[in-house]
Amino acid sequence: MRLNNKVAMMATLSLLSISIASSFAADKPRSGGTLTWGVETEPNTLNPQLNGQSKAELILRVAYESLLARKADGSFVPWLAERYRVEDGGKRLYFTLRKDVHFSDGEKFNAHAVAENFRHIQDPAYCAGSSLCALGGHIATVETPDDSTLVITLKDAYSPFLSFAAGLKLISPKSWQSPQLKSGGTDLAGTGPFILQRYEKGQQIVYVKNKDYRWASANAAHQGPAWLDGVTYRFLPESSVRTGALLSGQVDLIEGVSGNDAAEFKDNPDFSYQHALNAGTPYSLFLNVEYGPTREQKVRQALLQGLDIDPILKSIYRGERTRVWGITSPVDPLYDAGLEGKYGNNPTLGNQLLDEAGWTSRDAEGFRTKNGQRLSIEIIQAQATVRDQRDVLLQAIQAQARQRLGVELKLRYVDSGTYSELRNSGQFGSIANSNTETDGIDIENHYLPVKAGGAINYSRTSAPELLPWLKAASSTLDTSARRGFYGQLQQFAIVQQAVAIPLYEPEDQIAAASYVQGAGFRPFKQMPENAYDIWLSDH
Q1: Please, is 403 exposed, middle or buried when counting C-beta atoms within 10 Å of its C-beta (0-12, 13-18, 19+)?
Q2: DSSP assignment of 92-110, as one string?
Q3: pLDDT tens-digit map of 361-382
Q4: Which helix (H) or strand (E) element contains residue 420?
Q5: What predicted TM-score, i.e. pTM, was given to this entire model?
Q6: Out of 29, 294, 335, 471, which could bridge 535 as a Cys pair, Cβ 3.0 to 4.6 Å?
């Protein structure tokens, strides 16, 4: 069975098990109680629009909501917008908004409030450094014919924009005047089922129920206020600490379960365990084509062909993670399986390519050299995204590159400020990262030239061959056609140019005490859903 079929079956069974578990809950949902959720990642900002951390979505989605929600097949259902339509080949979007919604600070939710959100993402003073500006750059006009109608006209037809517009987390008009605008905090109001009460940096973030909440998405498990009175997200970055906290009853629920710890909860009647692959871009090593040894195509190809990722993943994650080969997740509708098994684990070819590139000498430590310089590549990893044993994974790849190819990989973990500086300067060998944006947005972010809006083009590729595929894919609403264009792009970008080495597809895991009911995953991105539908049975 091909990998993509296996993954699809696993995802289906995972979601089915969630449904079955919910169906056979012993009690009916009831209100009351508070939940403590142990989480892996602390948000680098509480502004839901400027925060680019996928793992922080779990925390921020309890307070901030979007125009539309999505079903498992990617189709849209009503949320803060009652309906929508797309005209002129994807160039014009219409949203009809609900009339019964208000922000938690008392501000009215209407077309003018929503329009202000879209106007801000066109302002570099607000969104510089994030992918928002690139997406906002597609907007020609934002109009409000009446209080309930929002019309967004794009400069050109751009099919990924609906996904972005439908999912933008909206904030209150008062928020734009707050000194906390970029950092986020209690001044920033959303429409969600919970309201931020306090944030204790490095410790936890506490939300309380929004008692006025009455506008859940059409595919939510219930309507009306949340069942819980409150939810606390406690920051526990170490997997073993999260596991210990749940086993000892210090928290009720955790996300981010390591491969080693999964066995603690599987088939254990005192706990439930669920997992699901994310959508978006796999965790990959993006190789900088403009700086250092990775400027040489044969050096990049040598790493792609010479490394053997499978045994590393199996050793570290105990078979609990999924190897990937292309530019998007196996559960993404745009996934193309054409690269599965087509490269890698060929150290003979890898060493041949390095010899051809002139890296033929060795120093006293066994590393390849050329003209007296060691073949050394610095891999940058942002501290904010060091999770899921990625540090261990990179160390294993580092050791294999030395043993198999004589290549030195230097691992450097940096804070957010340094990370931003390095990205802007381009002075790095490689960046390791993943993202969860869907509908081709993530592909464009990674493979559009930086000057053309490639907000996270870590490889800094500007190969002209990529642009026709990207343009063609973004100009049609036909998913099959788009998949074909991206399939051609990944063949060129990965196999021929080797601008990235895909490693594994991130997934999310949830382990909970048996009395926690209703926890699960968002239907499309398959990230942990917020606490709105969670309730507590007797314990």
Answers
A1: exposed
A2: EEEEEEPSS-B-TTS-B-S
A3: 999 999 999 999 999 999 999 9
A4: helix 416-425
A5: 0.82
A6: 29
